Amino acid sequence: MSFLARHLGPDAAETRTMLETVGAADLDDLVARAVPRGIVADAPLRLPAPMSEHEALTALRRIAAKNRVMTQMIGQGYAETVTPPVLRRNILENPAWYTSYTPYQPEISQGRLEALLTFQNAVMDLTGLDLANASLLDESSAVAEAVLMMRRANRRSTSDRVLVDARTLPQTLAVLRGRCRAVGVELVVADLTAELPEGEFFGVVLAHVGVDGDVAELAPRVEQARAAGALVTATTDLLALTLLRSPGEQDVDIAVGSAQRFGVPLFFGGPHAAFIACRKGFERNLPGRLVGVSTDSSGRPAYRLALQTREQHIRREKATSNICTAQALLAVVAGAYAAYHGPDGLRAIAERVHGLAARLATGLAAAGTTVVHEHFFDTVLAQVPGRADAVVAAAAERGINLRRVDADRVSVSLGEPHDERDVDAVLAAFGAAAPEQDAPEGAWALPGALLRTDGYLAHPVFNTHRSETAMMRWLRGLADKDLALDRTMIPLGSCTMKLNAAAEMEPISWPELASIHPLAPEDQTLGWQELIGQLETWLTEITGYAAVSVQPNAGSQGELAGLLAIRRYHLSRGDRQRKTILIPSSAHGTNAASAVLADLKVVVVATAADGSVDMADLRERIAQTGDELAGIMITYPSTHGVFEEQVTEVCAAVHEAGGQVYVDGANLNALMGLARPGRFGGDVSHLNLHKTFCIPHGGGGPGVGPVAVAEHLVPFLPEDPAAAAADPEAEAFPVSQARWGSAGVLPISWMYIAMTGGEGLTESSRTAILAANYVSARLADVFPTLYTGPGGFVAHECILDLRPLTKASGVTAEDVCKRLIDYGFHAPTLAFPVAGTLMVEPTESENLAELDRFVDAMRAIHAEMTAVAEGEVAVEDSVLRHAPHTAEVLTADDWDRAYPRSLAAYPLPELRLGKYWSPVGRVENAAGDRNLVCSCPPIEAFAAAERAEREEALEQEAAR
After folding, report:
1. Where in the chain is the domain with CATH 3.90.1150?
2. SS3 content of the chain, % helix, strand, coil (to 5)
3. Confidence (pLDDT) at 854
4. What pLDDT does residue 938 have?
5. What is the distance between the alpha carbons of residues 352 and 919, in angstroms, rounded to a whole number?
6. Is Cell division found in the keyword set (predicted)?
7. Closest to 810 measured CA to CA, from 885, 876, 861, 860
């Protein structure tokens, strides 16, 4: 059987049934009536013929074999690590974890929320700070986020200058230069090992551990910064912090870095979970996602996403960041790594790594080689006048990669998997003999002023799961609390929760792909270059653009890269005044935030009654903007789930006014093989490989957001950060710290395209459109679809209008989402882009039985809402308002509700055959935001809830 038959949910018979329901003769007829004729592609996709799963895996094996797996001691922000097999198999390779969605619906996300809270707690403990978020995209962009935080939070300073340590990672400096240039921040890079330079700065970025390995005491520079009215960010290393005095103890405001060395493979540059931690008072400036603790309807502790993501979306152009995602799956791995090893295990790893570095330094010094820094953690910088190339080459002959700093210096970074034999091989490459014994006690020891004296990771979660059995059961218990795609359809509109096939996922763990350093010599990465080159070529063909860059490691970064390309294009033509971007009112919140980060002014365009862009308002905005128009951001198909007929007219109007057209590719799942944004008027698009091209969401990340551009914008694609770091004067704008961003998950999309081919991608789009129209038609009489195209059809998603019945009954769309949990479903997208509605995207991967199961659930809920509307039960007493129902509530001795237990637990007969039980009742979000807690609650919190419940039961018994 072909892969396509495995990927598509409906078979031929089911497709015929669905076509009859929507009133189309066949898929050709449906597409002809749903997709505007003016945008239809004039030729089929020119992609290689589809392969079977075995053929594609074999072909990818041949490509991967062209990479050379080495012992990696390059460092520069990346460390070799050991992924414990229990974590690799039970998290990275487990669909219960990688197919889950962002935990916006907390009741069915308690497992992944607890895992992310564990990560946050580990970061907070190790950095010594009060708050940490659920991860950021990479270390370099995290530093940029920290700079923007300091600028916004520092009310004492009116300066636009930030001071950055010259010891910072080169790729971080490259990303930071571009980001600061875009928003008008003056970046000053200086040697901060002595005094701070004169002048006013709103913030200072210090390197706790420099790129060359030297460890610095932060407190003296922090004190100077405080006196100058500046806030302070420190870049740091989590493993080193098991030994080193924490940033929090040294009065730092913000700490950032990468959690990659906590069990996450090199992945040729990513995905890796960056971290950001801060002092209290920065809560509303913290970017990304923050997991907090609240209570559920029974008063028990319950986890949920706190205020961050919602606030950033609501702020739109006033947002402090465009980051609404995380590297959740990788943060889960890093948090579990900390829990598996615990404080003693992590410290032992750190001491061993430092001991190996000291052994290396001892051997070098004994051979007369100058070791540049006296105080280091895991990286030794050696002075070898004129011999750097020879040393690096000699190490490569021994299967080891070192870092050539310049012609006279070589850097060696040690990691968890390295041993004495590796160190001795490196010494041989330097021409030094292996030491007869380890470094003498006290040699190369870190001084007391640098050492940590306080404890960390004292919570039971970091001191319980020592055996593999315990860790396996903990992870299984967490996964069992959640609803992911391995259990049920996730009908989220605009999020494309389609199949993440096992054959697509399998290659990411291959050492030939996962163990390659992003800065390895190019002759060692030929396989990666071939894979990425093919993928970029295929994406170029699919989108109709001239070129694609896969560097952006999230949709938000793809947006930023695309908008920066537009801004830089106008600047190259002398049009500095073109700084206004038009954005429809229905757009995703990150669109506006990304525009601000690209130094663009946002003007909102109204939505017409049919959900399309209001053409009259558009023309008026264009006229008002005049020669200040930079362009427009539109999503196609629209955020309202329709193919707008006038999209070519919108593009033409903007082009005539001298603007550029940004087509948000979030909904490309409805376009593959049918239409190409680069051919119907787009100048630039970002794509979401974690949606359309099968990279899984992983509980909220990893994501990849490639940017595709027309010919005239090719020069303005994101630059290689390594090249940009080598030429600080060049106006480069890399958006991620690695040249190819989160390369480690690109094999997933390569496999998907290789196994489907052009015809398969087209069939996927056609089937996705059919599935959405089927759900829309089946629910039309109870929950009508809010917007449709001229032919009465939707694209790949539909917005169900609950507002009339909500008005009649008082039952809200949120109540419906909570009640769907009792039916075993993740909720659709709630209240976006229209309040009081639900947006449903079935995808092409769900079969007819699963679509009907969802339809049956929604129709049953409609009946429950109708009963409330007709006065049979008050909304406050209804099964909807009390949903979801936990097993604990339903098995309690007392039951005083206005509906039977059976209706709460088994509203449809088939649920008796397999039932998902929500681990918590409805979570109190408002209470959690009022009392923000973002660390692991003590066990006593759960015990207190149990005691309160027992006492209440005794009181009720006494009353009876």
Report:
1. 797-921
2. 45, 15, 40
3. 98
4. 74
5. 41
6. no
7. 876
Instruction: Say if residues 137 and 260 touch (Cβ distance below 8 Å).
Output: no
Nearest to 254 by CA among 168, 156, 145: 145
Q: Is 741 within 8 Å of 704 (Cβ atoms)?
A: yes
- CA 183, 186, 189, 195: dihedral to nearest 10 degrees? -130
pLDDT value, residue 248: 97
Q: What distance in Å separates the CA atoms of residue 34 and residue 643, rounded to the nearest whole number?
A: 7
Query: What is the 8-class DSSP label of residue 90?
Result: I
**pLDDT at residue 586, rounded to an integer:** 79
Residue 320 has pLDDT above 80, yes or no: no
Q: Check residue 193 and give its pLDDT.
A: 87
Query: 886 falls in which pLDDT band (50, 70, 90)?
Result: very high
Q: Which amino acid is at 288?
A: G
pLDDT tens per residue, range 322-380: 887 889 999 999 999 999 999 999 999 999 999 999 999 999 999 999 999 999 999 99
CB-CB contact of 492 with 101 (8 Å): yes
Residues with Cβ within 8 Å of residue 573, at least 6 apart in sequence: none
The span from the CA of 76 to the CA of 212, in Å, is 8
Q: So what's the pLDDT on residue 944?
A: 56
Q: Please, which residues have CB within 8 angstroms of residue 606's CB and are 6 or more apart in sequence?
A: 584, 585, 614, 617
| Beta strands 274-278 and 798-801, pairing class | unpaired
pLDDT at residue 947, rounded to an integer:
54
Residues 472 and 459: their CA atoms lie apart, in Å, by: 19
For the cut 90, the answer to whether the pLDDT of residue 177 exceeds it is yes
Q: What is the DSSP string of 573-635?
A: TT-TT--EEEEETTS-HHHHHHHHHTT-EEEEE-B-TTSSB-HHHHHHHHHHHGGGEEEEEEE
Distance CA 641, CA 648 (A): 17
Determine the Cα–Cα distance for residues 669 and 496; give it in Å rounded to an integer: 7
H or E stretch including 957? helix 939-959
Single-letter amino acid, residue 611: G
- Residue 874 structure tokens: 């008050």
Please answer whether residues 209 and 237 qualify as being in contact, where contact means their C-beta atoms are separated by less than 8 angstroms.
yes
Q: Do the beta carbons of residue 641 and residue 670 sit within 8 Å?
A: no
Q: Where in the chain is the domain with CATH 3.40.640.10?
A: 3-65+521-757
Which CATH fold would you assign to the domain 797-921?
Answer: Aspartate Aminotransferase, domain 1 (3.90.1150)
- What would you measure as the largest C-alpha separation in the chain, in angstroms? 91
Of 64, 32, 36, 898, nearest to 534 by C-alpha is: 64
| DSSP one-letter string for 753-798 | HHHHHHHHHHHHHHHHHHHHHHHHHHTTTTS-BS---TTS--SS-E
Residue 700: pLDDT over 80:
yes
Residues 548 and 571: their CA atoms lie apart, in Å, by: 21
SS3 assignment, position 944:
helix
Note the pTM of the prediction, 2 decimals: 0.96
Q: Average model confidence (pLDDT) for the chain?
A: 94
Taking the C-alpha atoms of residue 952 and residue 154, their distance in angstroms, rounded to an integer, is: 48
What are the φ and ψ backbone dihedral angles of 257, each rounded to 5 degrees?
170, -165
Q: Is the pLDDT of residue 313 over 60?
A: no
Return the CATH class of domain 3-65+521-757.
alpha beta
Q: How many CB atoms within 10 Å of residue 493? A: 26
Look at residue 138 and tell me whether its pLDDT is greater than 90. yes
pLDDT tens-digit map of 474-515:
999 999 999 999 999 999 998 899 999 999 999 999 999 999
Residue 475 Cα distances to 127, 260, 468, 549, angstroms: 25, 20, 10, 36
Answer whether residue 931 shows pLDDT above 80. no
Euclidean distance between CA atoms 571 and 579, whole angstroms: 10
Q: Is the per-residue pLDDT at 311 higher than 60?
A: no
